[in-house]
Design brief:
Strand content of chain A: under 5%
CATH superfamily of the largest domain in chain B: MetI-like
Shape of chain B: flat
Order of helices and strands of chain B: HHHHHHHHHHH
Shape of chain A: flat
CATH superfamily of the largest domain in chain A: MetI-like
CATH architecture of the largest domain in chain A: Orthogonal Bundle
Oligomer: heterodimer
CATH class of the largest domain in chain A: Mainly Alpha
Number of helices of chain B: 11
Distance between the termini of chain B: 30 Å
Radius of gyration of chain B: 24 Å
Number of domains of chain B: 2
Structural class of chain B: mainly alpha
CATH class of the largest domain in chain B: Mainly Alpha
CATH architecture of the largest domain in chain B: Orthogonal Bundle
Distance between the termini of chain A: 20 Å
């Protein structure tokens, strides 16, 4: 075993030990009854709550409702953000018109629009989807715009010299060239939408959704339901971030050798 | 329009002077016009919809109504009061986050042991959207000030931890070694090599953390039943269908967000890492 590997193994052991100690500490405090157990449920009760909710399918319904909202809003954001970003980067008048608007709207946190949307569209899916859409559009738009703008001009000239027409130039040079940025945009957009959907569900409460169930559980002092839902929220977010976007990245820009793979 | 008239006066005054300045003035005017044009178009569309009465006026106020309620709320001191509370909450939460985040992040970057201990915890807690913790914090610390500030601190500390950790680790090995061979002791090494070397990352982390804090705070103020605050203002305005007050609140939120992003950190960056030639200015 090389020293590097030994170091790596020691890191893993230390990490595992930390997690176990943290869990044991938490469990100890929880069992000690120093805080009321409804507020600080034991890990055991969190796990069994999670299991129960998975077994009777309520958790799937909540997760399904949340995923529907987030994916709908996210898809809308891509449908608007991607073409508009490309247009802004390719045509100066479009950029001149939209850039000031985008820079003015971007710093408005999506949550601050929730009350307004609630007035306009009522409580429920439409409001949540629109909040997600608002949150996700700007990272998508902004990254696409800067990606297309930052395509190496040398590539454009080389392709032009080799006789590529507009259409080919667009599909074979500009889009792949901007792709690392576009992927980053999607990633950021999803991250934003994931945060936005949880918040929007808490405020614009409907009757399903992971954000809603957490907030609803507060009323009944069900901290174990809360924790179980937080675990599911974290898990889904992790799956999307790592598996979905990670594999898109691997299949495209990494294979094309445009970005180095990050460690880990 | 007084603004336009003033601009005209300025242009005329400049035209009277030397020629190159005149064209610079005209160029600036054109730039302003170009930036204002989209807002005029959107404003006109908004106004048309509002006046035409497709939606009830109460829900879709004219810009005039919004402006009037903005002025009224400002003069009566309600809007500034909300704003001050929000800003204080933001700064307290973010200040806590900066202190805790930098300490943990730098420690993680410097010692392997701290990294091994903290990284698993951080990487488990960080990807969960901060707002999901809100009800939990409300249960633990009760509704109000403490929950709001702690939540903002908790949420915004993650980007700070993450970036300062990466930054300290990204300091070039060769800088460390050359400083060492020139006889720098631990403290000097930290102050004069590691800290400046990691600063671009640290600033990025602070910037991201502040942006995060700002976004979360608005939502937290709606949920945490705080007595004052812009988030509460717009949420409370909903009850009374005060859409114009709501829009006035959103405007202030947007302006603060823009100021934080554009000025505070841009200035800090220009003053440090850009001046040192470590990164290029964003301008």
């Amino acid at each position: 075993m090389t020293p590097d590997q030994a170091q790596h193994r020691r890191s893993i052991v230390r990490g595992a030990v930390t997690l176990m100690i943290a869990a044991a500490l938490y469990e100890g405090v929880s069992y000690s009854g120093f805080f009321p157990q409804v507020l600080l449920p034991t890990i055991q009760s969190i796990v069994s709550t999670l299991y129960d909710m998975l077994a009777d399918g309520t958790m799937f319904e909540h997760a399904g409702a949340t995923l529907y909202r987030v994916l709908f809003g996210f898809a809308l954001a891509i449908t608007l953000g991607l073409p508009l970003g490309i247009l802004m980067a390719r045509f100066k008048p479009v950029e001149n018109f939209f850039l000031p608007l985008v820079s003015a709207l971007m710093p408005i946190p999506s949550f601050s629009l929730v009350p307004l949307f609630m007035l306009w569209f009522g409580i429920g899916n439409l409001t949540t989807i629109l909040v997600v859409f608002y949150a996700a559009t700007f990272p998508m738009l902004f990254n696409t715009w800067s990606g297309v703008r930052s395509v190496n001009p040398l590539w454009l000239r080389a392709a032009g010299a080799m006789g590529a027409d507009e259409k080919k130039l667009f599909w074979k040079v500009i889009i792949p060239g901007a792709f690392p940025f576009i992927i980053t945009g999607m990633r950021q957009a999803f991250l934003r939408s994931w945060i936005a959907v949880v918040g929007a569900e808490m405020i614009a409460a409907s009757d399903w959704g992971l954000g809603w169930v957490i907030f609803d559980a507060k009323e009944f002092l069900e901290a174990n339901v809360m924790m179980a839902s937080i675990v599911v929220i974290g898990f889904i977010g992790f799956v999307f971030e790592r598996l979905v976007f990670g594999s898109i990245e691997k299949a495209t820009v990494q294979r094309w050798g445009m970005v180095r793979m990050a460690k880990g | 329009m007084p603004a336009g008239a003033m601009q005209d006066a300025a242009t005329i005054a400049v035209t009277g002077g030397r020629l190159p300045q005149a064209s610079a003035g005209r160029e600036r005017l054109r730039l302003i016009m170009r930036n204002a044009f989209p807002f005029l178009v959107v404003g006109a569309i908004w106004e048309a919809i509002a006046r035409y009465g497709i939606f009830p006026r109460k829900l879709f106020p004219t810009l005039e109504d919004v402006a009037r309620s903005f002025v009224e709320l400002t003069i009566s001191g309600i809007l500034p009061h909300h704003t001050i509370y929000t800003v204080i909450r933001l700064l307290t939460g973010f200040g806590l986050a900066a202190i805790i985040g930098l300490t943990i992040g730098v420690l993680m970057g410097r010692t392997r042991r701290a990294e091994d201990i903290c990284l698993p915890l951080v990487s488990i807690l960080a990807p969960i959207p901060g707002l999901a913790y809100t009800p939990l914090f409300l249960l633990w610390f009760g509704p109000g000030e403490v929950s709001a500030v702690l939540l903002v601190a908790f949420v915004s500390s993650f980007p700070i931890i993450y970036n300062s950790w990466t930054g300290v680790k990204a300091v070039k090995e060769i800088w460390l070694r050359s400083a060492q061979s020139m006889g720098a002791d631990k403290r000097r090494m930290f102050r004069h090599v590691i800290l400046p070397g990691a600063l671009p990352y640290i600033l990025t982390g602070l910037r991201l953390g502040l942006a995060q804090a700002w976004r979360i705070l608005v939502a937290v103020e709606m949920l945490a039943a705080v007595p004052w605050g812009l988030g509460w203002l717009i949420f409370g305005a909903r009850e009374f269908l005060n859409t114009d007050a709501m829009m006035a609140g959103v405007t202030v939120i947007a302006v603060i967000g823009l100021l934080l992003e554009k000025y505070v950190f841009q200035m800090l960056e220009n003053y440090t890492v850009v001046r040192w030639g470590m990164v290029e200015s964003m301008e």
